[in-house]
Amino acid sequence: MVKNRNIILFSTLILLIVLTSLVPISLFPKGSLHITLQILKGILLTLSWAVFYYLIKVTFFERYKHVYKKDVPRIVLISTKFFIFVCAILSIIVFVLGQSILSIVALGGLLSAGLTFALGELILDAFSGVILETESPFDVGDWIKTLDGAEGRVVKINWRTVILENIDEYLIIVPHRKIAQGFTNYSKPHKGYWDSVEITLDHSVPIERAERILRAGVMTVPSIHQQRCDVTAMKADEGGITYEVRYMVPDLLVYREVKHDVIDNLTQHLHKYHLRISEVIGEYAVSKGGKPYQEETPLTIANLIAKVDIFEGLPKSAVTKLSESANRLFFREGEKIVQEGDAGQSMYLIGEGLVEISIAYKDNAGRQKEKKLFDLGFPEYFGEMALLLNEKRSATVTALMNTVVYEISQSVLKKTLKDHPRAFEKLAKQALERREKNKLTKTQMEKLKEKREAPSKGLLANFKKFFK
């Protein structure tokens, strides 16, 4: 129906143009009839161009809105109306008033040259705006940065300029021609934005170890985006080895807060390992609080065990026994350290890196799925449940990055804890809490009504089998 109506309108348009343009007024005698015919011809020409604009609107503009689900760029609408208006005026001058087309073209050329010279930048802005709106490389709400340094979130796009709001909430007006020269869109193809800090460590720290420790320090920062982080050694000089630590910021508006959290967490993480820090961390000096900086002794397995909360209060002889028997293991990023359902005869202490704890469950359709519970890093531990409860592994543990763990066997742990019931009670309590938490999580995921076991009156009674 719409298509037939457009055909009728188009035919009517052609007929109007033929009637008004090809029939010369000079055929009619001078006088009132001549003037009347001139007026009628002008009205018909005006109507014909109005119908022509309507056809363009229905045929092209409406289809554009239907296909791309957005309005036609304002600059295109304005340019189309201006073009039709000029054509209507010229056609009336030529076909109604009988003026020579050559003189009009010559006059138009002079006027165009003058306007182009006077309004060159304005015209360039307008055409640049047409190109930008057609390609749509950014939208309102995107954070962009131009080649000359103008940076901010796009709050408005008009026919000549783009209005940005910077991080200090000031408005920056940028002409389209400036943006058309090139810009960076921090919001596409995703909202995340890469930022970085530089850390300089002593030459005595192996690069692969520095990478593990620095990545773990950043990936435990809650405000970074999707735990995305990488570490690269950039240079080595007399001050040490400088690393670029890159991390993903969820939105450029919060990059200052995220950078603060990253630097704070990194310095705390490095101090946990007793690492020698260079006098300068990139742009940031290490705060000494007005006192001489005193390096601690390098972190050993004994130091690590002493930092684990369940082993606090153990005598030095017991810590030494555990550290001498601990087995150092290395796992690459994505490698499974513990698999749910396997038998467990040992527990693990995290020395360097970060691991993910997850459980398997079945949804209502019976499909096997994986649920992430939490992450663990230095100086935390895992695997104690299967060890103490004589059960199979209740969760899967995966290395989120290159990770170093220390394995303590059941036999060694049994000998150590037998003489220290307080440490055993603490470990047993932690194991029971994790077991119940995992069970509850799996129950919620599978939407099953499972009766929880009533806790025993004494924790030691729950683990009698451990010392058998």
Lay out the secondary structure.
Elements lengths: L1 H21 L9 H37 L5 H22 L5 H18 L1 H16 L7 E4 L4 E7 L3 E5 L5 E5 H5 L2 E3 L7 E9 L5 H13 L9 E9 L2 E10 L5 H18 L7 E2 L2 E2 L15 H7 L8 H10 L1 E5 L4 E3 L7 E7 L1 E9 L5 E10 L3 E2 L1 H6 L6 E4 L3 E7 H8 L3 H26 L22
Antiparallel strand pairs: 1-2, 1-5, 2-3, 3-4, 6-8, 7-8, 9-10, 11-18, 12-17, 13-16, 13-18, 14-15, 14-17
Helix pairs in contact: 1-2, 2-3, 7-8, 9-10
Structure, explained:
This protein is of the alpha+beta class and 468 residues long. Helix content is 44%, strand content 22%. It has 13 helices and 18 strands. It has helices at 2-22, 32-68, 74-95, 101-118, 120-135, 176-180, 207-219, 255-272, 301-307, 316-325, 384-389, 410-417, 421-446, and strands at residues 143-146, 151-157, 161-165, 171-175, 183-185, 193-201, 229-237, 240-249, 280-281, 284-285, 327-331, 336-338, 346-352, 354-362, 368-377, 381-382, 396-399, 403-409. The chain has a 5-stranded antiparallel beta sheet. Strands 11-18-13-16 form a 4-stranded antiparallel beta sheet. Strands 12-17-14-15 form a 4-stranded antiparallel beta sheet. The longest helix is centred in the first third of the chain and has 37 residues, at 32-68. It is elongated and about 125 Å long. The N and C termini lie far apart (89 Å). Mean pLDDT is 76; it is low at 280-297 and 448-459.
